Recover the amino acids of this structure.
């Protein structure tokens, strides 16, 4: 264990964590960000970002990488490893990493984000990366000229479907309702696109030998079943928060961490920001806001 005691350890290098790092460092704190995956998290996989103030249009990776570069310029340190155990004591806290290192710190900001929710049906694990994908921007190019289906009815699902339509020969959108949860601008684009919507339906079976070749679709209104030949299914049905090892924190009915307006959790010196936090809207801009507020509260609390 390193004897050095840091001011704040930030778990996650998505927009919330990167912004928290920038604000904490500018506020005079020695900040270290832990990231077990890639910088930017899910935000970095967005094919197009059109609602970030001041930036008319960009892609998620470019936006997140700019935040990463800014945080490094401000002096934020990075440890690319996975946090596996937390000891969140009132004074000095510790975060154990998969690589064997343990960081000691006065405060912790949890900005670990969320992971794509899975379908929870048979053969989903079998066909992972063999016809089941949770990231259209990551895997879409692999199915150029093929037949694909997107499952979901929110912004992410429509973004994925509209993106894949440019690559695939045929793109289906399967949604369990007959109305969308997505913003109106995406619904309008869907109407004029070549995406084929399948309403009031869910996927009940995944079939194939070495890779996915067919799905069974059930109509929820009349119970009819139909087979659909596809080369890939892109799942976009929401997220689950990354809260492993954080049982001591109060969470809402969906598992998201509960905070006050200052992003403070129920434990002293522990804050939560971004998609891991219980809130009404999960967007890049709100994640950045959370990160700034969490860092500001941390600065005040450590004074």
């Amino acid at each position: 264990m390193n004897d050095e005691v840091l001011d704040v350890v930030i778990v996650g290098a998505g927009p919330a964590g990167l912004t928290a790092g920038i604000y904490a460092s500018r506020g005079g704190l020695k900040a270290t960000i832990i990231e077990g995956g890639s910088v930017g998290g899910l935000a970095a996989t967005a094919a197009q970002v059109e609602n970030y103030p001041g930036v008319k249009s960009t892609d998620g990776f470019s936006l997140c990488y700019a935040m990463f570069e800014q945080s490094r310029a401000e002096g934020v340190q990075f440890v690319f490893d996975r946090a596996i155990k937390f000891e969140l004591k009132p004074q000095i806290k510790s975060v154990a990493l998969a690589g064997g290192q343990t960081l000691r710190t006065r405060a912790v900001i949890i900005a670990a984000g969320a992971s794509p929710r899975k379908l929870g049906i048979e053969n989903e694990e079998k066909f992972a990366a063999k016809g089941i994908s949770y990231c259209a921007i990551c895997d879409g190019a692999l199915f150029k000229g093929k037949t694909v289906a997107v499952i979901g009815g929110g912004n992410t699902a429509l973004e994925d479907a509209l993106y894949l339509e440019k690559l695939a020969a045929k793109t289906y959108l399967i949604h369990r309702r007959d109305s969308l949860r997505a913003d109106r601008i995406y619904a309008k684009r869907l109407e004029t696109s070549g995406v084929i919507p399948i309403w009031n339906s869910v996927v009940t079976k995944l079939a194939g030998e070495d890779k996915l070749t067919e799905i069974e679709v059930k109509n929820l209104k009349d119970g009819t079943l139909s087979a659909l030949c596809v080369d890939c299914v892109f799942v976009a049905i929401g997220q689950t928060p990354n809260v492993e090892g954080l049982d001591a924190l109060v969470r809402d009915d969906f598992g998201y961490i509960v905070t006050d307006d200052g992003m403070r959790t129920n434990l002293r010196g522990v804050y939560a920001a971004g998609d891991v936090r219980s809130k009404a809207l999960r967007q890049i801009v709100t994640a950045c806001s959370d990160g700034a507020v969490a860092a500001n509260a941390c600065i005040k609390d450590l004074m």
The CA atoms of residues 87 and 94 lie 5 Å apart. Helices lie at 15-26, 60-73, 136-139, 155-165, 184-191, 284-302. DSSP finds six helices and 17 strands in the chain.
